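Ticket #4471: structure output looks truncated?

Reporter: J.K.
Steps to reproduce: submitted the chain below (119 residues) through the standard prediction queue, then opened the result file.
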Amino acid sequence: QLQLVESGGGLVEPGGSLRLSCTASGFSLDAFAISWFRQVPGKEREGISCINSRGNIDIINDVWGGRFIASRDNAKNTVYLQMNSLKPEDTAVYYCAAQPRCRNPIDFWGQGTQVIVSS
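Returned output as attached by the reporter:
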């Protein structure tokens, strides 16, 4: 079954860093673009970035000010989101999502991982 398994979330103090992972199961990630999103309960999902099959970031939301950097390792069938200088307002559920290309409709979502940034 096609699945994106997300991990790496947790509790972190303000100013800290986390690295989220999104690992494909049941398919090869190398032909897909992967987007990262986050969602606060009761609010709309907001986009962070999209990394295409070549490893180029095609969509960057400059709201993040370079704090969040996506990367991928196709040999490990995994896409990453490095999050630095975390702030309390970064508290959210973070999702990865697969699509044929950046800006295409999403095929399916990962399960999400909770990130809590607290003082």
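Triage note (M.O.): checked the attachment and the full token line is present. The mean pLDDT is 92.
Status: closed, working as intended.
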